[in-house]
Design brief:
Elements lengths: L1 H22 L8 E6 L8 E7 L5 E2 L14 E7 L5 H7 L7 H7 L6 E7 L11 E13 L4 E12 L4 E5 L17 H28 L1
Parallel strand pairs: 1-6
Antiparallel strand pairs: 2-3, 2-4, 4-5, 6-7, 7-8
Helix pairs in contact: 1-4
Length: about 210
């Protein structure tokens, strides 16, 4: 009976690993990552709204660094303050009554200007990477009745030892690379957690077969 219990525990560990792999790519991990608009003070006559594919829209507090959902893309919209009805916005996007059709209809308003930049989270680093946080700095290049243009300007990397560095975006389609990298391959740190349950299972099966033959 004891042998079967141990075997069941090992199989459970393997199944748990497989479930986690479906949620988070194996060998990767999440870090803190957010966006900040560097020149929002130049556009104080506007309200900025973040619309995410799978979440409720939210009004941005431009004093804070805002995160985007790890799944899907997000877009920033702008609307003149004198045209923004905060009560309507809060009522439509209340977490208890919100529905997707309301969102579609709301963002059809002509007074809402959508930016030309789709935002995503920073690519997931390797599980043993020293990177701990990224802050992506955005710059509004143009905002008027006809155009709303945003560009990724630079990125601030913070590492596990508390040091930071800043790098500029050379291309809007390519993320700058952090200078500090893990000394060992990611799989080295994960080796025992990944392989040990399988080795234990093989050993248990071998012991079981050996005892059956005796």
């Amino acid at each position: 009976m004891k042998k079967y219990l141990i075997l069941a525990i090992i199989l459970s560990l393997i199944l748990i690993q497989n479930v986690n792999a479906d949620i988070l790519p194996y060998g990767r991990r999440y870090i803190e990552s957010c966006y900040q608009i560097s020149n929002a003070d130049n556009f104080q006559e506007y309200i900025f709204i973040l619309d995410e594919q799978i979440s409720r829209p939210k009004k941005l507090d431009l004093n804070d660094c805002f995160a985007v959902n790890k799944n899907g893309e997000a877009t920033i919209f702008a609307i003149k303050k004198d045209l923004f009805d905060e009560n309507e916005f809060n009522e439509k996007f209340d977490k208890y009554t919100y529905n997707y059709e309301d969102k579609i209809n709301y963002f059809k308003k002509p007074e809402l200007k959508n930016s030309d930049l789709n935002l995503r989270i920073y690519p997931l680093p390797k599980s043993n990477d020293p990177l701990r946080k990224t802050v992506i700095i955005l710059n509004i290049k143009e905002l008027n009745e006809n155009s709303f243009t945003i560009r990724k300007e630079k990125i601030l990397f913070t590492y596990e030892d508390g040091t930071s560095e800043e790098k500029n975006f050379i291309s809007q389609d390519i993320w700058p690379e952090p200078s500090k990298k893990a000394l060992l391959p990611w799989w080295f740190a994960e080796f025992w957690f990944a392989i040990l349950p399988f080795l234990a299972l093989i050993i248990m099966i071998g012991i079981f077969i050996y005892k059956r033959k005796r």
